[in-house]
Write a structure and sequence with these properties.
Metal Binding Protein, Guanine Nucleotide Exchange Factor, Chain A; 7-stranded mixed β-sheet; 3-stranded antiparallel β-sheet; 10 strands; about 5% helix; globular; binds zinc ion
Length: about 140
């Protein structure tokens, strides 16, 4: 199975991603906005078992319920762990250029700024992630 090795900004933390992402997406939820200071956050979603921190010191915390992991040294946001979903959302800023292939926007009901593009804009989560498939028209 293919694997991809990524690192934080300072190189202290190394992460191995095994196999292909389940989906690449932008999350517009309030939680992601607050912890990153961004309007929306690009994620590459992997099954929990496909993500392994192979080196370095990480710190973990939660704003509300979703656990977040950063590098202890440089503070780079590494991944989020949405509660009870068995997945890790890898910050797509860590990926090699060109490998992030977004397929959708999620949690658009919380969006600060509409992002108008040809991708589907789900109000919450799509049905494949336990949501309703309701979309927002921007
Ligand atoms: Zn670091
Ligand atoms: Zn989010």
């Amino acid at each position: 199975m293919s694997s991809l090795n990524i690192a934080c900004h300072c190189g202290n933390v190394k992460i191995r991603l095994t196999g292909e992402p389940v989906v690449d997406l932008y999350c517009h939820c309030e939680d992601c906005q607050r912890i990153t200071g961004a309007g929306c956050v690009p994620y590459s979603i992997y099954p929990q078992a496909a993500v392994e921190v192979t080196e370095g010191d990480t710190m973990r915390w939660a704003l509300k319920s979703n656990q977040r992991t950063r590098c202890t040294h440089c503070g780079t946001y590494l991944f989020g762990m949405p509660e009870g979903m068995g997945i890790h959302g890898i910050s797509a800023y860590l990926l090699p250029p060109g490998s992030f292939k977004p397929q959708m926007h999620i949690m658009c009901k919380d969006a600060l700024v509409p992002v108008k593009d040809e991708l589907p804009h789900f109000a919450g989560f799509p049905a494949s992630f336990g949501g309703s498939d309701e979309k927002i028209a921007w």
